[in-house]
Amino acid sequence: MKIEIKDLYFTYPTGVEALRGISLTVESGEQVAIVGQNGAGKTTLVKHLNGLLLPTRGQVKIGGWDTTKYPVAKLASRVGYVFQNPDEQLFSRNVGMEVAFGPKNLGFDAERVEALVNDALVLTQLADKTETNPYDLSATWRKMVALASILSMDTDILIFDEPTTGQDAVNVARIAHVIAELRKRGKTVITITHDIDFCAENFERVIAMSQGKILLDGRTNDVLGREEILASTYVDPPQLTRLGKRLGFKNTVRNQEEFLNALKK
Ligand SMILES: Nc1ncnc2c1ncn2[C@@H]1O[C@H](COP(=O)(O)OP(=O)(O)OP(=O)(O)O)[C@@H](O)[C@H]1O
Ligand SMILES: [Mg+2]
């Protein structure tokens, strides 16, 4: 399902101009990371994808649906959004109910709901916690519950807002595994992240934002190679990318494998 954003501007009621002319297309099944300094407008941008925010000017289309013409409840069948802060999202008494709420709300039959809930719980390794109150879980696991409760809705498009913030290495690997599985299933994934290594390891396309605009948009290696432009939005390329550059590698490298291959040449 294609995402088309045309010349999008958004101003908050307070007068803050958070988006200032964003144009962007994401093809069905693409996986994209969005990076950029605090306040760049990343969250404001993704909140336009499921109609939580509507353009002040410009247009957002999800699989041909103009977001101003469809209610949020309807858009929820196409776009799942995992909040930056899970506490804004969770409200059920236990994990099982939380994860079942979305697909039930979309009107799926009981059998489908059960299958989707089980799948989401297994993917996020929460299957042994269905009876637990989300608020008795650690903040890291609450984030996984928030993730599971969106996965279970089986939307074509999934948005993750800072999924790895505050997560330990094991949970970061769990999240990477979920994203890899979604890739296999042909889902479109847009992930906002401050974790540049996570971005380099898991995404083929990166968008860098600054002050409500897109600064760079392209293949991960190409974007990470633009060290000076990234610095203007306070993003440092991965350590290995910078080291490769200082060693004079012809091509930008982004992980150990690419670094070692370049070293051998
Ligand atoms: N509800 C709001 N009301 C008024 N201004 C807001 C609101 N939410 C965000 N802003 C402002 O809009 C701009 C963009 O904020 P946004 O949250 O989209 O940035 P971000 O890139 O997601 O930042 P972060 O990395 O800190 O999450 C900032 O100047 C921010 O202060
Ligand atoms: Mg944000």
End-to-end separation: 40 Å
Total strands: 10
Assign the CATH superfamily of one domain. P-loop containing nucleotide triphosphate hydrolases
Label the overall shape.
globular
Which secondary-structure class do the elements indicate?
A: alpha/beta
Bound molecules: adenosine-5'-triphosphate, magnesium ion
Write structural notes for this entry.
The protein is of the alpha/beta class and 265 residues long. It has a domain at 3-78 and 155-237: Rossmann fold (3-Layer(aba) Sandwich). 37% of the residues lie in helices and 23% in strands. The protein has eleven helices and ten strands. It has helices at 42-46, 72-75, 95-105, 110-123, 139-151, 169-184, 196-202, 220-224, 227-231, 239-246, 256-264, and strands at residues 3-11, 17-26, 31-36, 57-62, 65-66, 79-82, 157-161, 188-192, 205-210, 213-219. The strands form two sheets. The chain has a six-stranded mixed sheet. It has a four-stranded antiparallel sheet with strand order 2-1-4-5, with no helix packed on it. A hairpin with a 5-residue loop joins strand 1 and strand 2 (17-26). The longest helix has 16 residues, at 169-184. It starts with a strand and ends with a helix. The model has no long low-confidence stretch (mean pLDDT 95). The site of magnesium ion has 4 residues, from helix 1.
